[in-house]
Design brief:
Helix content: under 10%
Number of helices: 1
Structural class: mainly beta
Shape: elongated
Number of strands: 46
Strand content: over 45%
Radius of gyration: 27 Å
Length: about 550
């Protein structure tokens, strides 16, 4: 398991900006294993003569060795954190009488590479005299989850205390792996916002047939650290997501991480990420805790030193007992773009080979090696400037409203994908300067999302009429699409065939593409759409999906 975990730190990750990295905004298994919550308000140092009471904290690790614990002591009345001084194997502090929140962590092993972590929480430490407290990790209980599988083992886990003190949310997290055990002591109860969260991912061996089972389990407790620290997930409490990891025509050479964000309804705290490994193409049966928990995923398709990131843009809720399905790296591939307009700038950040699914962002096109091309911006028909980097453009523009046109031309040859070898696209859109930072306030333009029943290599059958789902994602502030067309080519754009479109809801159509028996193994797509608000898109994607 340790060898697999080493894959979770990407070497070269496909990125939203050239040369950058895509890092999910979560704590995953590659993050530091300890994060002790701190108050932003610090109590002033108290002289020895003015101290009413002394707090002494001692730690004993799982091997019986004495050491100073990590700890934070926060005044419940003011939210101020009390300074604690480490001397040898103790922490000491001076405090007036009152009620405090005490959180502590006892580490076994090196601080930068512990093998055991024990979490202590006392939501209301009442100080009326001197306090001398020993946190003996040998008396703490190991945290663990019990799944319905007898062969699934832990991949990673997190335990978290999140509480509110004097209007501040303060969060402490410890993170486990097969080589790092997590423990905790049950605590007293409180009625103020105080939550203990335990999450764990478990996975069966990847050689399991028909496909391995993965469990993403989440257990919240309000008001205390519970007395029972073995958490059981019953089959009735879980939702099944049959998950397909498709390749972009090139099988992955290593296991990439599938990371999911856990979001507990009505509970704050730092976002927690659970991880398991997956190759492409492959399938897994992934079970999630349902009811009261939402999830958002990220998958890193790995070929050689490249990890191509795809992420879900929104949280997803599951109902216990239900079965769902999802596919990562799902064709057809094509460009999408976001723009920001503010502070005298208009910036464009395309994704060259985004997925065909709504609610996804695929960064597979945004690795600079093997990619050449340009972006050109026009304002009211006048050229503003161009960028020889097709992955990003930044231009100085007036604040007044105008009609913009963004032209993209791209050629691409990469070892990890057979698709999107060329793109020619044009987006037309109205825009005026908006308040705020244009890099933070980026909005999407009118764009196509085209997909179908492809195999796990992004291919469709030859010699048949193949249905495509055509969704047009509206531009922000745009209106319904008023015109749309789609053409297909089976010889990289030398000749084109119209694909009839049948309306299938608002901004949705079904296309029927007649796949010939003779072809070059790929389908190019030429798509056009416009709305009633001045937004339009025209794009030609060479090798949007494959044929078998």
């Amino acid at each position: 398991m340790a060898a697999v975990a080493a894959l979770l730190v990407p070497v070269h990750t496909a990125a939203a900006t050239p040369g950058g990295t895509v890092k999910p905004p979560i704590r995953d298994s590659s993050e530091p294993v300890v994060d002790l919550g701190r108050s932003t308000t610090k109590a002033p140092a108290r002289g020895a003569g003015s101290a009413d009471h002394t707090i002494t904290l001692r730690g004993i690790d799982i091997d019986g060795a004495a050491l100073a614990p990590l700890a934070s002591l926060i005044d419940l009345a003011t939210g101020a954190e009390i300074q604690l001084t480490e001397t040898g194997d103790t922490l000491t502090g001076s405090v007036p009488p009152g009620d405090y929140s005490l959180t502590g962590i006892v580490l076994t092993g090196a601080r930068d590479a512990p093998r055991d972590l024990a979490l202590y929480g006392n939501p209301t430490l009442s100080v009326r005299g001197d306090v001398d407290l020993t946190l003996d990790a040998r008396t703490a209980t190991e945290l663990r989850a019990v799944s319905p599988s007898t062969t699934a083992t832990e991949f990673n886990s997190h335990a978290q205390l999140t509480q509110t003190i004097a209007g501040q949310e303060i969060t402490t997290t410890i993170s486990g792996r097969p080589e790092i055990d997590l423990r905790a002591w049950p605590s007293a109860s409180t009625t103020r916002p105080y939550h203990f969260l335990y999450v764990e991912s478990q996975s069966e061996p990847l050689t399991t047939r028909p496909s391995p089972r993965v469990y993403n389990l989440a257990f919240p407790t309000s008001g205390r650290i519970p007395a029972e620290l073995a958490f059981t997930a019953t089959p009735e409490s879980l939702a099944l997501v049959n998950t397909t990891y498709a390749s972009q025509g090139v099988p992955s050479t290593g296991l990439g991480p599938h990371v999911v964000i856990v979001d507990f309804d009505g509970i704050g705290g730092e976002s927690l990420g659970l991880t398991h490994a997956a190759g492409a193409p492959s399938t897994q049966r992934v079970y999630y805790t349902a009811n009261g928990v939402k999830w958002r995923g990220n998958y890193f398709y790995t070929v050689g030193s490249i990890q191509v990131a795809e992420r879900q843009s929104g949280l997803r809720a599951y109902a216990a007992g239900n079965t769902y399905s999802e596919t990562w790296n799902k064709a057809a591939f094509g460009p999408t773009v976001k723009v920001g307009h503010g502070q005298g700038l208009l910036i464009a950040r395309p994704l060259l080979s985004d997925t065909g699914q709504l609610g996804r962002e695929n960064f597979g096109g945004n690795y600079t090696t093997g990619t050449t091309g340009s972006l050109i911006l026009y304002r009211n028909g006048q050229k503003v400037g161009d960028s020889t980097n097709p992955l990003a453009g930044d231009w100085t523009v007036p604040a007044a409203a105008a009609t913009f046109q963004l032209d993209m031309a791209v050629k691409r040859t990469v070892t990890w994908s057979n698709y999107v070898t060329a793109v020619n696209a044009r987006w037309t859109f109205p825009s005026a300067e908006r308040p705020g930072d244009p890099f933070d306030d980026q909005r999407r333009l009118l764009q196509a999302r085209i997909t179908g029943g492809y195999d796990t290599s992004g291919r469709a059958p030859s010699g048949t009429t193949f249905p495509l789902e055509v969704n047009v994602e509206r531009a922000v502030d745009g209106t319904a699409v008023t015109s749309v067309s789609l053409e297909a080519s089976f010889n990289d754009g030398v000749t084109w065939t119209s694909a009839p479109l049948t309306p299938n809801g608002t901004d949705r159509w079904t296309a029927r593409v007649a796949h010939p028996t003779t072809h070059n193994g790929y389908v190019a797509l030429r798509f056009k759409a416009a709305d009633g608000s001045g937004n339009a898109v025209e794009q030609t994607v060479t090798r949007a999906y494959g044929l078998r």
